[in-house]
Amino acid sequence: MNPRKTILYGVLPLSVTMLLIWFYFSSIPFLQNLITPPIDAIHPNSRREFGLLENMQNILLLTMVAFSLFALRKEKPAIEKVGFFALAIFSGLVLLEEIDYGLHWYEWFNGISAENAEDVRNWHNQGDRTSRTKQIVDIGMALLFLVAPLALAKVKRPWLRYLCPDRYSILTLVAMLIVRTTAHTLRDQGLGEGGGIQRNISEFRELLTYWIFVLYVYELALNRVWPGFKADEVPMDPENGSE
After folding, report:
1. What's the rounded Cα separation, in Å, for the pair 103 and 222?
2. CB under 8 Å to 148, separation ≥6 — which residues?
3. Which residues in the chain land under pLDDT 70?
4. Taken in order 150, 216, 131, 205, is the CA torsion positive or negative?
5. For residue 173, which phi and psi values (nearest 5 degrees)?
């Protein structure tokens, strides 16, 4: 066991998210308001955008963008640079979707009432796109962070070993399962009423989704070298079946 990775991939994300869950379901107004501030003047669906949970997600997405841009400044082959450039663009677009393209800030600063606020605030929350997106992400994460580390750790192809996530990612998936079960159980028990995210309880699990991707991008950007590329870089992690 690697203590540092155990903390980064398992203990820390689980502890932080469970603390946020306690804040929300504690029935203590001050703590619940940290997750969904009671700002009556804005659209009800935007109140959580000013809270601790949503803004932690935004920070993680910004971190993904930063790691990707940092990788572009390093000595890397063209194929890697293209990949990190695409990753920076994609992470930025996800961030814009998460913050409703700044719409809630615009409405708040301009005093636009909840009655006059825009109903269509982003792309992913329209129709059944949210549920479909979650299904795709769940399948993708299971393949990338569970199947791949177990199946490809000893694979001979160097580029597959380069792309294979750290096997400690499995700890984060376990943490996500614990968070999901806990949050839904507490919600089903009638706790957290009035908090503002009863219909969006998956936001807690979503925090860990971004967490695991941040760690993955960090590994690719700072700790791994494209196979065959000669540069003065930090070698890949031998514990993850890399050179």
Report:
1. 34
2. 163, 164, 165
3. 44, 114-115, 118-119, 125, 127, 229-243
4. positive
5. -65, -40
